[in-house]
Amino acid sequence: MIIHNERVARGGVPLDKADRVLILVHGRGATADGMLPLGERLATDQLAYLAPQAIGHTWYPNSFLAPLAKNEPYLSNSLSMLEELRDNLEGLGFPDERLYWLGFSQGACLMLEFCARHARRFGGIVGLTGGLLGETVDRSRYRGDFAGTPVFLGTSDPDPHVPRIRVDETEMVLTEMGAHVRKKVYPGMGHTIHPEELVFAQGILDGTF
């Protein structure tokens, strides 16, 4: 099981004591361990959190705006890792509605792409400065129904890596697929996480979003 692999950092309550799981996906050049303080910041009773580690600290080599083929086979391998993690958790008794996804930057892009390709009723999704992948957004890649999944998308405008228009396009696609999306744009914030974004993330976990 990948959840017992050294490439997955863990925090919060043990999985056998948890009723929900938060999956934290790091950005380019970062680490899984570096995401654990964020999980601790958002931790609630009976919440476990897991953070997978990208090989070489990057999920794919080029910009998320590059043609998908330019990021292969790394992109497919990274998406498969998230799918395996999800499948492992399902096998441990965590249905999708008890899984929460949070990613920052490249990790947000990967996580949003994964969720859109496997849309269903998740517990919640938090995309911090990220968007769907590809030179253009190809709606035909995405299947399923989010069935009201709460989604928060936050970003800076401008951002050196993630253009606002791609966040807007991502909001539109996820909404069309049945997600309840709230987006917040922070003028001149830079490529970082705003404290208010964590308030929105906490709201998703607490059911007050």
Structure commentary:
The protein is an alpha/beta fold and 209 residues long. The chain has one domain: Alpha/Beta hydrolase fold, catalytic domain (Rossmann fold, 3-Layer(aba) Sandwich). Helix content is 30%, strand content 21%. Strands 1-3-2-4-5-6-7 form a 7-stranded mixed sheet, with helices on both faces. Helix 2 packs across helix 3. It is globular, with a radius of gyration of 15 Å. The model has no long low-confidence stretch (mean pLDDT 97). This is Phospholipase/carboxylesterase. InterPro entries: AB_hydrolase_fold, LYPA1-2/EST-like, PLipase/COase/thioEstase. One of its GO terms (molecular function) is hydrolase activity. Keywords: Hydrolase. Belongs to the AB hydrolase superfamily. AB hydrolase 2 family.
Instruction: Quote the average pLDDT.
Output: 97
| SS-derived structural category | alpha/beta
How does the major sheet shape up?
A: 7 strands, mixed
The helix content is 25-40%
Tally the structural domains.
Answer: 1
The third-level CATH topology is: Rossmann fold
Q: What would you say the CATH architecture is? A: 3-Layer(aba) Sandwich
Overall 3D form = globular
Number of helices in the DSSP assignment: 5
CATH classification, class level: Alpha Beta
Q: What amount of the residues lies in strands?
A: 15-25%
Distance between the termini: 32 Å
